[in-house]
Amino acid sequence: MKKIIPLLAAFFLIMGSSVRAEEFSPVLTTLENELKVITLEDHSAPIVTLMVWYRVGSRNEHTGVTGISHLLEHMLFKSTKNFKGGEIAKVIKRNGGYLNGFTGEDYTGYYETLASDRIEIALKIEADRMVNGILDPEEQRPEITVVKSELEGGENNPQYLLYREVKATSYLSHPYGWPVIGWKDDVLKIKREELYKYYKTYYQPNNATLVIVGDFTTPRMLALVEKYFGDIPKGPQPPEVGIREPEQRGERRVVVRREGNALYLLAAYHVPEIGHPDIFALDLLSQILSGGKSSRLYRRLVLGNWATEVEAYCDENVDPGLFTLWATVREGRDIEKVEEVIFKEIERVAEEGVTQKEMDRAWRQIEASYIFSRDSVSSQARKLGYYETIASYHYYLNYLENMKKVTLQDVGRVAKKYLTRDNRTVGWFIPTRPKGGKGPGPFRPKEAYYQGENPSFSLPTPDTMPKITREVLDNGLVVIILEDHSNQTVAIRGSLKAGGVLDPPELKGLSRGVAGMLERGTKDRSLLEIADTLESVGARISISSGVEAVNFSASSLSRDLASIIEVLADLLQNPRFPRREIKRLKGIYRTHLLQREDSPEERGSLKLYELLFPEGHPYHSPTIEERQRTIEKVKRKDLVRFHQEYYGGEKAIMVIVGDLDTEETLELIKNYFTHWRSKTGGREVDIPTVPLVPETREEIIPMMDKSQVSVHLGHTSFLTRDHPDYYAAQVANHILGGGWVSRLNNSLREKEGLVYYVYSRFRAGLGAGPWVASFGVNPKDTEKAINLLKYEMERMRREGVTQEEVDDAIKYITGSYPLRMETNWGLASALHWAEYYDLGLDYPWTFQRNYTSLTLEEVTKAVRRYLHPDALLTVISGPYQRK
Question: Which of 143, 338, 494, 650 is most buried as measured by Cβ atoms within 10 A of its Cβ?
Fold first, then answer.
């Protein structure tokens, strides 16, 4: 007998807004074999996400087999009883879907997103994966090398190295002390017998939760679940994890010294498990400490010129976890002093508590984040599955209600109880020699993924296209509005042609500096006033500069749309460029450059664009030294002049999608943007095409203290986004290196086990960008991997492609593209690019015809016209020297 439990009878009113109860009613069903099934109908788009969560992760391992959970996840994309190796990915791709897997400390999961009429395929795959994995030793051998490549890629990141050491030092006995991906020596020695035993122990219906969210009817979906999972027998109860970490009774310290440039600090405090009532207060405390520019630590450290990045985060684990504090030390600052500043602020919170204003602001940010988590079916599925696996779905459903109960006294109490000297482990990353960027943000590795690609999905047909309003204001600003009332959120996506292509030759990067200053003060608002206005309602605005354009975006709850539009208009039109903020931003950029030069991936990519395009070309990448000189040379008058000359509505686009009223929104835009004009009246972007250089070249960047080599290859092209060959070239590249089942992935990863990732792509925009490819590889396999990539290119040019490959690529591209439109942000972005490239506003719904009309001959012609292995520039960065 199946047991059905309504998960949510009614929702609640919070802070003056209602989360719509009638649209959020998940149902829990338990099969006779004790498989838990959570279903949630969401008919906002004809897609479904299916996830299977197993209650097994690195927590369930022991020394000697660390990383076995993650290795097993990889192996279950190989052969099963009903699918040969590689077939699972091929089947999902042919049906225009997306799949992946992930492993954490407490869980392992798999998921597929497909058109709703194809979801039965995912049910068949996951039922088969649960019991029929073969774990062939012949497939395991290369896959261990792939996992080794993934592990070594992580070791290239200084923040990962620091995090790994701090975790290992924080935990003396508990499995949380080792990385999810495992220790390298353990992973390399795992035998097939150990893997198979582990699989049969934990992959049982009574140790799993199946989550299905999207466009379906629950009775029919449950019937399908019963069809595929109902006959799988219940297994023995998996063993409990009996290890408990002893109380820490004194500060511990660890220092990591490796080649690099930037200094990092990490402090970790032991905190309770997810079911403990103090977790809600700790979550709120982390938001107060680092939730935006108005937060405690940002104001004290970043605005105080001690650090460039700071973050606080509270773990949610089955067993007691960690509360972490991250900081990237600003160039020229002493890490010991930065630590002192951080801990003084923590002591102040513990002794004096926090203010009601801080509480209210943090609460609204959390509320907005919760509502945004329901913007897509995949996000809802992930939340429901995650919390049911580590605690209960009730945790997610009641999260806001429980957060609202937290008091000022609770926040001060947990700070005083847990954020103590004796309960912390402090780690420093000290670079061993100076070198010289923007590296990754605060590092928080909680999961290891099976490498897949990120596609997109299918919405209405042209006959049922939603009503889109497009209006051009008197100043030339193109405004596009689409109502979508499925969730009470709004997304804004826009651009103006004021990017790096307009930089003066002597000040390359000026456009980036202008965009970076827009959020740092206007004529009527300071940086903190801007931050407080946005963060007090949980809204976000982002402005950045690329080569071709300045891009801006905003997101908010629908009730706050009017105020967000007003703030966005103020930022774009009325920047004050305060000298104090210019100085602060220069310091941040200098530190980012140091971080960038620590990364083999970053240095390789920058060098590729430096050598492919001549100096003066918009796509040419300045060296680190040239970027540093620009930072020093830029004056306030340069920023002001650039903004006055190029910022205006003449070459701008603004798309607004979400829970709004079209007429009211259009009036708001007109009110705030009609008079926005630049001095020059806007300029068209002119990007010359660079001829192909018919010779192979190689550049080596030695970084001998790294673990993995990063390889970037490329050549120039004459392919622009509006070129008639664009679609045929995209299909050709997809077959070569654009997806999980591409020729490059099949050769370098699946057959040879040399790399964790490999991809290729055309960078076609308003100008003709390059064709590029990239992979990470163990130093000893560098030349073999490069030669294999070149061989696959040459073979494709020589033999062409098959009709089956063309058909599969077109099915995937046309079936997956609209998945990007699952959220308001994704739909706004799709409409923006349709306008930007003059594709027509119906493009997101009619683009398929550009691909389905292609012939085998056209794709083969594109291969030979746009792929040139005899003209490749190869950049090798990392622990490598040519023999």
Answer: 494
Closest of 763, 49, 126 to residue 385, by C-alpha: 49
Question: What DSSP assignment string belongs to 229-242?
Answer: HTTSPP-PPPPP--
User: Which contiguous run of DSSP H or E holds residue 875?
Assistant: strand 873-878
Known catalytic residue: 165?
no
- Residue 733: name the closest of 755, 776, 764 by CA: 764
Q: Is the dihedral of CA 481, 486, 491, 494 positive or negative?
A: negative
Task: Say which residue the tokens 């620091």 belong to.
Answer: 162
* Residues paired with 39 in a beta bridge: 27, 212
- Do the beta carbons of residue 266 and residue 324 sit within 8 Å? yes
For residues 232 and 428, give the distance between their C-alpha atoms in angstroms, rounded to a whole number: 50
H/E stretch holding 490: strand 489-496
CA distances to 109, 477, 861 from 838, rounded to whole Å, are 40, 15, 26
CA angle 132, 136, 139 (to 5 degrees): 120
Q: Which of 22, 32, 41, 73 is catalytic?
A: 73
873 forms beta bridges with 697, 714
The residues near 197 (Cβ < 8 Å, ≥ 6 apart) are none
In whole angstroms, what is the distance from residue 546 CA to residue 836 CA?
Answer: 14
The residues, any chain, with a CB within 8 Å of residue 164's CB and separated by 6 or more, are: 179
Q: Which residues of the chain have pLDDT under 70?
A: 1-23, 433-465, 818, 820, 883
Domains annotated on the chain, with CATH = 3-229 (3.30.830.10), 252-376+386-450 (3.30.830.10), 462-673 (3.30.830.10), 697-878 (3.30.830.10)
Q: Phi and psi (nearest 5°) for 839?
A: -95, -15
Exposure b/e, 354-364, CB count within 10 A at least 16 = b = beeebbebbbb
Q: Which candidate, 378, 397, 372, 398, places its Cα nearest to that of 557?
A: 372
| C-alpha–C-alpha distance, residues 304 and 865, integer Å | 54
Distance, CA of 449 to chain centre: 12
Length reported for the chain: 883
Give how far Cα 801 sits from Cα of 362, 596, 725, 741, Å: 55, 38, 16, 14
Distance between start and end Cα atoms, the chain = 68
Q: What is the pTM of this model?
A: 0.89
The predicted-structure confidence for 679-709, as pLDDT tens digits, reads as follows: 998 888 889 999 999 999 999 999 999 999 9
* pLDDT value of position 443: 45
Pick the closest to residue 835 from 654, 667, 661, 683 (CA basis). Answer: 654
CB atoms within 10 A of CB 244: 10
**Residue 470: helix, strand or coil by DSSP?**
strand
- Token pair of 637 as six digits: 């008058």
Which is it for the CA torsion 28, 31, 36, 38, positive or negative?
negative
| Contact assessment for residue 178 and residue 17, using Cβ atoms and an 8 Å cutoff | no
The pLDDT value recorded for residue 23 is 57
CA dist 694 and 703 (Å) reads 29
Contacts with 759 (C-beta within 8 Å, 6 or more apart), sequence order: 453, 737, 738, 742, 744, 773, 774, 775
Task: Please name which of 467, 461, 458 lies closest in space to residue 45, comparing C-alpha atoms.
Answer: 458
Q: At what angle do helices 137-155 and 158-170 cross, to 10 degrees?
A: 100
Tokens at 270, concatenated: 């032991």
CA triple 384-386-391, angle to 5 deg: 95
Question: For 228, phi and psi rounded to 5 degrees?
Answer: -95, -30
**Interatomic CA distance for residues 720 and 763, integer angstroms:** 8
Distance CA 396, CA 626 (A): 49
Between strands 697-702 and 873-878, the pairing is: parallel
pLDDT value of residue 412:
96
Q: Which residues contact 242 (CB under 8 A, 6 or more apart)?
A: none
Phi, psi of 676 (to 5 degrees): -80, 105
d(CA 59, CA 447): 12
